[in-house]
Amino acid sequence: MIEYGNKIENKLEKVNMRLNCLAGDCIILSASICFLGFFSSEERIDIRAIIAKFIEDVEKVPCSPVWKGDGS
Question: I need a surface site. Which of 24, 52, 64, 65 has the fewest CB within 10 A?
Fold first, then answer.
């Protein structure tokens, strides 16, 4: 029973993180549309990481770890 409770808590934490990062993720996705076809995969990952850093550091809007380009 404890195992099931831990599993539910982990899912809830992930949902809360997604909700917390929704605004930042939407900004990155919107910006991504502008350059999707013109850059290689590596360049897109780097650009998204730069955008995520700007959004988090300057605008103080959290983004999901997947956008940071560190393989998270």
Answer: 65
DSSP SS3 for 7: helix
Q: What's the pLDDT at 72?
A: 46
Instruction: Break the chain into its structural domains and give their ranges.
Output: 2-68
Give which of 12, 10, 24 is closest to 62, Cα–Cα. Answer: 24
70 φ, ψ to 5°?
Answer: -100, 10
pTM of the model: 0.65
Contact 27, 53 (CB under 8 A): no
Burial (CB < 10 A; 0-12, 13-18, 19+), residue 55, is buried
